[in-house]
Write a structure and sequence with these properties.
- Its main location: cytoplasm.
- It is found in: Cytoplasm; Nucleus.
- This protein is α/β, with parallel strands linked by helices.
- The chain is 36% helix and 18% strand.
- Helix 12 links the parallel strand 13 and strand 14.
- The longest helix has 14 residues.
- Adenosine-5'-triphosphate (ATP) binds next to helix 1 and helix 4.
Length: 460
């Protein structure tokens, strides 16, 4: 890793250098390596500078179904400490997000309730548990009372920043980072009321080094459970930490996704939980017009692309390539043609990617050329056209339907009609296209890109 500017306050007011987030390896989709999952999650956090707009329904499963369902529409209703309410408003939050409406009353209830919450990135989970921890702390007590674990150093820093921001007007509450590089002597008695860190270091601080007394923890938060379980070691460490906590400690677990493995892990860590799930919006292809273009090679695909651009007005387009090399080549060719192009590619740092996505979102570039893996989490409303310069395939070379839906699903949002064009240059890619048609039970029509009238028609 390379060093970046900036300092964070560590324990006992020592400062820690902030190591920049740097990944040498490219993202590689879902079959991805653990670091890629964490990096993707970090990228999502960095690009979600505001709440994700969601119309999804929240599903609440209460531990005690007889107790009345309590949800809030304002932060005032939560009767937060003034210092915290000021922090919330200072962050620009006017009202609780969907997940916060239900999760916050549960998390702040007396007696404390355990919670498992699942909702996609950017829906306000981090802000919710940050507020819960800050609310539960007794600043007069100079020992650690709330413990939060995150899967990586960078994710821990990111969450810590939210807690620091929210607690800005509550300076009596102090935060320490239990992350690599923050070395403390055995037996040091930590005074910070909140500790955020990675499982290994937190475990050391609780057991070997006796820096935190786990028996005095009243809130335990496990963030990004889906990323956490990707590493067996982290899973075991998390469970070992949880076992040291007192029975009455409130356990909170958050995850963006909820496949079986996450659920099994969650059940081991959180006894008698309330459960909140934000149902995923069903993405459909109904509002998207899909076409394919037959070409012989990549140069012909490029010509077809230029013809489409020449014939229709495109607000913003995303173009997907299979490899970084093709993406690089294509963006250079498009630039030669006078297009203002952004290239999102696997060898960039997470910060660089976040900056490019932000510029694209602001409309500074009209075309974004990217490989698959960089694009998850990007949610740009004004994208009207998606071009699959290469069709998405899985590691076995078959159609990757989920990725296809993800890619083109972003064009037809909010009832607007979107356009998706697939470039076919071989028998194999035709075969992939047929698999996609079959999977979604939807015919994809052929488009003749030499016929400008025909292209104009599809954009109407
Ligand atoms: N009630 C709110 N009103 C306005 N903005 C909010 C609110 N809650 C959170 N946000 C903002 O929305 C963005 C996403 O929130 P947050 O990071 O808490 O979501 P998340 O579900 O934890 O997502 P991720 O898993 O990506 O971290 C942040 O920029 C946060 O500041």
């Amino acid at each position: 890793p390379r060093k970046a500017k900036g300092k964070i306050t560590g324990v006992n007011n020592k400062t820690l250098p902030v190591i920049s987030i740097y990944y040498n390896r490219p993202f590689t989709c879902h079959s991805c390596l653990v670091e890629d999952k964490a990096a993707q999650s970090l990228l999502n956090k960095m690009i979600h500078t505001s709440l994700v707009n969601t119309t999804n329904q929240v599903e609440v499963l209460q531990r005690d179904p007889k107790s009345p369902l309590y949800s809030v529409k304002t932060f005032e209703e939560l009767r937060l400490k003034d210092e915290l309410l000021r922090g919330v408003y200072d962050m620009g939050f006017n009202r609780p997000s969907k997940i916060q409406e239900n999760a916050l009353p549960m998390m702040l209830a007396e007696p404390p309730q355990n919670l498992i919450a699942q909702s996609q990135s950017g829906t306000g989970k981090t802000a919710a548990f940050a507020l819960a921890m800050l609310s539960h702390v007794d600043p007069a007590n100079k020992w650690t009372q709330c413990l939060c674990i995150a899967p990586t150093y960078e994710l821990a820093l990111q969450t810590g920043k939210v807690i620091e921001q929210m607690g800005k007007f509550y300076p009596e509450v102090k935060l320490a980072y239990a992350i690599r590089g923050n070395k403390l002597d055995r037996g040091t008695k930590l005074q910070e009321q909140i500790v955020i860190g990675t499982p290994g270091t937190v475990l050391d601080w609780c057991s070997k080094l006796k820096i935190i007394d786990p028996k005095k923890i009243s809130v335990f938060v496990l963030d990004e459970a889906d990323v956490m379980i990707a590493t067996q070691g982290h899973q075991d460490q998390s469970i070992r930490i949880q076992r040291m906590l007192p029975n009455e400690c409130q356990m909170l677990l958050f995850s963006a996704t909820f496949e079986d493995s996450v659920w099994k892990f969650a059940e081991r860590v959180v006894p008698d939980p309330n459960i909140i799930k934000l149902k995923r919006e069903e993405e459909t292809l109904d509002t998207i017009k899909q076409y394919y273009v037959l070409c012989n090679d990549k140069d012909e695909k490029f010509t077809a692309l230029c013809n489409i651009y020449g014939a229709i007005t495109i607000a913003q387009a995303m173009i997907f390539c299979h490899t970084r090399r093709t993406a690089g080549w294509l963006s250079a060719e498009l630039t030669k043609e006078g297009h203002v192009v952004a290239l999102l590619s696997g060898e960039m740092t997470v910060e660089q990617r976040a900056a490019i996505i932000e510029r694209f979102r602001e409309g500074k570039e009209k075309v974004l050329v990217t490989t698959n893996v960089c694009s998850r989490g990007i949610d740009v409303e004004q994208v009207s056209v998606v071009i699959n310069f290469d069709l998405p395939i899985d590691k076995d070379g078959n159609a990757d339907n989920e990725t296809y839906l993800h890619r083109i699903g972003r064009t037809g949002r909010f009832g607007k009609r979107g356009l998706a064009v697939n470039m076919i240059d071989s028998k194999h890619s035709m075969n992939i296209l047929n698999q996609i048609e079959e999977h979604f039970n939807k015919k994809i029509n052929k488009l003749d890109t030499d016929d400008l009238d025909e292209i104009e028609k599809i954009s109407n």
